[in-house]
Design brief:
This protein is of the alpha/beta class. It is built from 14 helices and 15 strands. The radius of gyration is 21 Å and the shape is globular. Pfam families: AICARFT_IMPCHas (PF01808).
């Protein structure tokens, strides 16, 4: 199959729409179920590249959760702790496969943003992973294959309309890529940059120690940024992205946005949140939204009389700013990647508040010395990669 007609483009008024191979070759994908759309394929192809590179760099199964052509989460298949299983809502599923653990992490990093995601998996989708996907609101999944039981589970989702795409894992695109904007064709070499441990060798701070676990987190951060709309910043810990700031014009806004998401990820592990007693039958999305409000500044939206009764069995106490700060101070050894250089030390100051200990960025700012000095103030280890990772 050389081309596939789509219902419409980015919006319903944008017709006709299709994907096709200009060189006359067959498309590298098969649609096993559903009718994926234009944005679905943008998410699928970007996400597939991300997880394929994560798998190659770490040797671990990888998953990502995409929304609007940027990842909401990305992770490799490390085992979940008991607390992580609870905050990702998979503690009732028993032992998970490594691939299922990767998706649980990717989906769980920012559940608000992952609502209605498109999923990319580095490995053949197994039943363990499909069972997690089955219970989440999602638009579709792309993987190099599907176990029979997994495919049956996915085909039954959304009344039989769930999008399931199989991609040829051996497909290699042309080294030159093209896109059109306003009728003008742009051409560039594909970004084939290989990101691995060797990428992290130029440590410019007084602290030169970056343990292997932190190197994995920095690699996850940088590969995630490679497929995130720029400007972008990514916080990572424990084998997963925990906060991604995408598409901001100001880098400090990226750092703040991603830092707030990382803070929310950690606040969800606090006893005040783990002990929330939700009413029976509450939908998963409503539960996620309630938690997001409870740990944020608009907590009275869910704690006001007349509101909390619809969400909780017992009215929770306010999670005070002081309590939240005390809890966040326990978050340590976080890794941070940036797709371009930090122009000011204020990014490092903000990162420090979210427990960042390890940093990877291209370097090259006229204020590099200031950024390095700020890292030294907090005993952070920072490496200059020398390579920008813009993605548009």
């Amino acid at each position: 199959m050389n081309e596939l007609e789509l219902k419409y483009g980015c919006n319903p008024n944008q017709k006709p729409s299709r994907i096709y191979m200009e060189n006359g070759a067959d498309l590298p994908i098969k649609v096993l179920n559903g009718k994926p759309g234009y944005i679905n394929f943008l998410d699928a192809f970007n996400g597939w590249q991300l997880v394929r590179e994560l798998k190659a760099a770490t040797g671990l199964p990888a998953a990502t959760s995409f929304k609007h052509v940027s990842p909401a989460g990305a992770a490799v298949g490390l085992p979940l702790t008991e607390t992580e299983s609870k905050i990702y809502w998979v503690d009732d599923l028993g032992e998970l496969s490594p691939l299922a653990s990767a998706y649980a992490r990717a989906r769980g990093a920012d559940r608000m943003s992952s609502f209605g995601d498109f999923i990319s998996l580095s490995d053949v989708c197994d039943a363990s992973t499909a069972k997690i996907i089955k219970r989440e609101v999602s638009d579709g999944v792309i993987a190099p294959g599907y176990e029979p039981e997994a495919l049956e589970i996915l085909k039954a989702k959304k009344g039989g309309k769930y999008n399931v795409i199989e991609i040829d894992p051996n497909y290699v695109p042309d080294p030159i890529e093209h896109k059109q904007v306003f009728g003008v064709t742009f051409e560039q070499g594909r970004n084939e940059l290989k990101i691995d441990r060797d990428f992290l060798g130029n440590i410019v701070t007084e602290n030169k120690e970056i343990p292997d676990s932190a190197k994995i987190d920095l690699i996850i951060s940088l590969i995630t940024l490679k497929y995130t709309q720029s400007n972008s910043v990514c916080y990572a810990k424990g084998g997963q992205a925990i906060g991604i700031g995408a598409g901001q014009q100001s880098r400090i806004h990226c750092t703040r946005l991603a830092g707030q998401k990382a803070d929310n990820w950690f606040l969800r592990q606090a006893p005040q949140v783990l002990n929330l007693q939700f009413v029976d039958g509450i939908k998963r999305a409503d539960r996620d939204n309630a938690i997001d409000l409870y740990i944020g500044d608009e907590y009275m939206d869910v704690l006001a009389d007349g509101a909390w009764e619809n969400i909780f069995k017992v009215k929770p106490p306010v999670f005070t700013a002081e309590e939240k700060r005390a809890w966040l101070d326990k978050n340590t050894d976080v890794a941070l990647g940036s797709d371009a250089f930090f122009p000011f030390g204020d990014n490092i100051e903000r990162a420090h508040k979210s427990g960042v200990k390890y940093v990877a960025e291209p370097g090259g700012s006229i204020r590099d010395d200031h950024v390095i000095d700020t890292c030294n103030k907090y005993n952070m280890a920072m490496c200059f990669t020398g390579i920008r990772l813009f993605h548009h």
